[in-house]
Automatic annotation (TrEMBL):
It comes from Auricularia subglabra (strain TFB-10046 / SS5) (White-rot fungus). It holds the Pfam family Spherulin4. It comes from the Eukaryota. InterPro entries: Spherulin4. This is Uncharacterized protein.
Amino acid sequence: MPRITLGESSTNGIAYYLQLSAFVHKAFGNSGSELVIHNPGGTTPQSFFDALPRDCFVTFENFASQMWAPSSIFKNPAYAGTPRQRQAAIIHDFGGSTTDLVNITDTVGEIEDMKYVFVTTQSDYNTFPTNWQTFAAAVHGTNAFMAEHPGWYPRI
């Protein structure tokens, strides 16, 4: 599955992102397996989800301690009707325990129904995270649990 991330996307000028997304999907054959991920760095309006139905949006990129802040995707009413399975959470500077990591992947996947999550110990994306194996195991565990209970998770 080809994946393209458009970092620092703007939520202004939807026409530009419609063209860019169409170009990327076409470049990879419009097979439906390609994934375009927009990272606007702020609130993504419902109109973007509606206009770009095959694309995903990073709607949380912050510290784990900010997950439940009033302005976060998890609490902000502006996101109440947005499709969570087309959203991604990037949690950086993670310093918690393995149990904390598992709780985050379970919460994001099982409770919040977000399909994409990345948790890193680093503050940047240029250094390999020290928690990579633990993170991969936590995601695998969350996915396995959800697969064992498909009635609880209708998108599976």
